[in-house]
Amino acid sequence: MAEQLLDQARDLFEGQIDFEGQKLVEVLVNAALTLVGAIAFFVGYFLQDIKLAVYIGLIGTAAVFVLVVPPWPFYNRNPVKWLPVGGITPPANLVVDDKMFR
Which residues form the signal peptide (predicted)? Predict the structure, then answer.
């Protein structure tokens, strides 16, 4: 029981995400920060308030940080399936650039 809880906590704090999750994070960061920057710029421009624009930018950046930094479970939908240890034996006679390796 305690071992299962420890394993779950370890998995949560290790922060493992798969390659597809990394690609998703990259797209989310680029799109969200672009959107936040544009919104902050236009609100600041139309209201002529640089302080408000900076606050919108900071709050939006913090929201994007919360969205992408923790290893949320939807970033690990396609985990990598590794080969088992020692599952493959090297070929007996390997030839590379006309050199024989045994």
Answer: none
